[in-house]
Amino acid sequence: xxxxxxxxxxxxxxxxxxxxxxxxxxxxxxxxxxxxxxxxxxxxxxxxxxxxxxxxxxxxxxxxxxxxxxxxxxxxxxxxxxxxxxxxxxxxxxxxxxxxxxxxxxxxxxxxxxxxxxxxxxxxxxxxxxxxxxxxxxxxxxxxxxxxxxxxxxxxxxxxxxxxxxxxxxxxxxxxxxxxxxxxxxxxxxxxxxxxxxxxxxxxxxxxxxxxxxxxxxxxxxxxxxxxxxxxxxxxxxxxxxxxxxxxxxxxxxxxxxxxxxxxxxxxxxxxxxxxxx
Length: 278
Prior knowledge:
Blueprint: E1 3-4, H1 12-27, H2 35-41, E2 44-45, H3 49-54, H4 58-84, E3 89-93, H5 100-103, E4 110-115, H6 117-126, E5 133-137, E6 155-159, H7 168-181, E7 186-191, H8 194-200, H9 202-208, H10 222-225, E8 233-239, H11 254-265, E9 270-276
Parallel strand pairs: 1-2, 3-4, 3-6, 4-5, 6-7
Antiparallel strand pairs: 7-9, 8-9
Helix pairs in contact: 1-2, 1-4
């Protein structure tokens, strides 16, 4: 049974990254496969004609490759954590219709998908919880959601494209609270510098009537922007596009590799890993 999603609706924002993962599975199969995304797309009643038209452009295809590399990077760090913490909790923050945590399942872990109530309503219709998977409707800033996470065997939090929409003071409060509540846990997320965040949020800021994004979270330097207040964590980073894969697959052209190098360098696109300590 298909699930109908209207054009120009809040739900539509969930379709775009999902379609990007489908596109990458088709165009870069040696680098990325998300068969769950392909199956899910086939269950959604939505007019994909505009996305199909856009998918022929270089910019859109590169954007889809960015989404794929980000998911691959997060999966590498989550699976690495599970090697030393079998049966740990995997928590997908701002999950949308993403199934990264499920794609990392070691057969023992508990999986939590967390997002705002209207998003979880769609997820419950398409990807209902069950067994070791739980969907949580919550605002990340309301820290009571911590109580839903069973971290007895460890916990790894994943956040893809989420924290750009938070103010720095909100991120400080969230990260320090997570480190205190979940010692020996791991948080993995993507970040970019102020220049990149300004470009990424340009449309959203205008629609939201926000006059400045100066207070929104960005990372130009781990040493300056994270370590001064992230005392209870070991913090490391790698390039978002090239830190985990050199992209020398024949399916990736030289222009995309150059764009990837510029993203990791000029835009400081990073995957940041925080291992919380006592």
